[in-house]
Specification:
heterodimer, A: mainly beta, 7-stranded mixed beta sheet, B: Immunoglobulin-like, 6-stranded mixed beta sheet, globular
């Protein structure tokens, strides 16, 4: 159980285009979904936290107009990288936290999306 | 502020040797701590959490509030344990990850 599906797994596009990444919790309802960025050989950097039905909370230094997050349902969150540029090339990972259970529920991760901007 | 520190970026041991991956945290409240593992070309997976007090794949981790540590241990490392390990601290609606330790188990 607790499967998170992330799509697409890899995308290459031209500079200036917008790219949407989807994150779905397949067999559970996610109270909260998280978006991370990972640079090569580095740890995960939290970009934003999104709660279903409310605005995402962005970490300091992350441009909310650049990285649009929508969390319209308990099973789906999307990250749109708007007007992407080469410096946005990175590995983006989403995770979701189950709304069931007591205590702090661990996050379950998607496979990640490798974004390459030419 | 909450912070997770993994002092070793790289750790290399021989098969059958004991292994300990260090994790220290700073947090003013009651922490919930986790270890995640990422095998080559796979997603990040939950390995264990401190409240479960269980052993997964031979790994254990004990929360030491006095030393603010949550070190991950295994008495006899296996080659298939080679991976990236992340210590994480959960709080309310947030989770912070350490920088990660790459464990290599040599034959």
């Amino acid at each position: 159980g607790a499967v998170v599906s992330q799509h697409p797994s890899w995308v290459i596009c031209k500079s200036g285009t917008s790219v949407k990444i989807e994150c779905r919790s397949l067999d559970f309802q996610a109270t909260t979904m998280f978006w991370y960025r990972q640079f090569p050989k580095q740890s995960l950097m939290l970009m934003a936290t999104s709660n279903e039905g409310s605005k995402a909370t962005y970490e300091q230094g992350v441009e909310k107009d650049k990285f649009l997050i929508n969390h319209a349902s308990l099973t789906l969150s999307t990250l749109t990288v708007t007007s992407a540029h080469p410096e946005d090339s990175s590995f983006y990972i989403c995770s979701a936290r189950d709304r069931q259970g007591t205590g702090y529920q661990p996050q379950h991760f998607g496979d990640g999306t490798r974004l390459s901007i030419l | 502020a909450q912070r997770v520190t993994q002092p070793e970026k790289l750790l290399s041991v021989f098969k059958g040797a004991p292994v300990e991956l260090k994790c220290n945290y700073s947090y003013s409240g009651s922490p919930e701590l986790f270890w995640y593992v990422q095998y080559s070309r796979q997603r990040l997976q939950l390995l264990l959490r401190h409240i479960s007090r269980e052993s997964i794949k031979g790994f254990t981790a004990d929360l030491n509030k006095g030393e603010t540590s949550f070190h991950l241990k295994k008495p006899f490392a296996q080659e298939e344990d080679s991976a990236m390990y992340y210590c994480a601290l959960g709080n309310n609606n947030d989770m912070r990850f350490g920088a990660g330790t790459r464990l290599t188990v040599k034959p």
